[in-house]
């Protein structure tokens, strides 16, 4: 059985960020995810699919947080629910879905 050598290109980035700075890590991870999606050819979400997402108003403070922006939702704020049940600020998820059609958490 012959073996095939497949060339692999790897990009390594060195960071000096405090481990507790979660927002920086999440933003960097999301950006890398978007870039990886672009390399794979992922497309933006269908406009009709985005319009069809369930929206709701937050009923109490401090219950959930936006997993993109890492801020807790405020009572009365409008949020958007993905089919997988992850919830985001409306602006955050619309921006994300403008570049990639899958949930940023899933």
Beta-strand residue percentage: 5-15%
The tally of helices reads 3
Calculate Rg over CA atoms.
17 Å
The residue-averaged pLDDT reads 77
Low-confidence stretches: none
- Helix share of residues? 25-40%
What's the β-strand tally?
3
Class by alpha and beta content:
alpha+beta
Instruction: Specify the oligomeric state.
Output: single chain
Order of SSEs, N→C? Answer: HHEEEH
Strand order of the largest sheet: 1-2-3
Largest sheet: 3 strands, antiparallel
Distance between the amino and carboxyl termini: 38 Å
Shape: globular
List keywords for this structure.
alpha+beta; 10% strand; 106 residues; 30% helix; 3 helices; three-stranded antiparallel sheet; globular; 3 strands
Question: What would you say this structure looks like, in words?
Answer:
By secondary structure, the protein is an alpha+beta fold. The chain is built from three helices and three strands; from the N terminus they run ααβββα. A three-stranded antiparallel beta sheet has the order 1-2-3. A hairpin with a 5-residue loop joins β2 (78-81) and β3 (87-89).
Please outline the helices and strands.
Layout: H1 22-40, H2 47-51, E1 54-57, E2 78-81, E3 87-89, H3 90-97
Antiparallel strand pairs: 1-2, 2-3
Gist of the model:
With 106 residues, this protein is of the alpha+beta class. The protein is built from 3 helices and 3 strands, in the order ααβββα.
């Amino acid at each position: 059985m012959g073996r095939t050598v497949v060339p692999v290109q790897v990009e390594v980035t060195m960071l000096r960020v405090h481990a507790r700075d979660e927002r920086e890590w999440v933003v960097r991870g999301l950006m890398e995810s978007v870039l990886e999606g672009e390399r794979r050819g992922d497309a933006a979400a269908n406009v009709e699919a985005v319009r069809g997402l369930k929206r709701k108003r937050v009923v109490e403070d401090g219950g959930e947080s936006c997993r993109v922006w890492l801020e807790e939702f405020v009572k009365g704020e409008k949020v958007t629910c993905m089919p997988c049940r992850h919830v985001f600020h409306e602006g955050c998820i619309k921006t994300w879905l403008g570049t990639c059609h899958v949930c940023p958490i899933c």
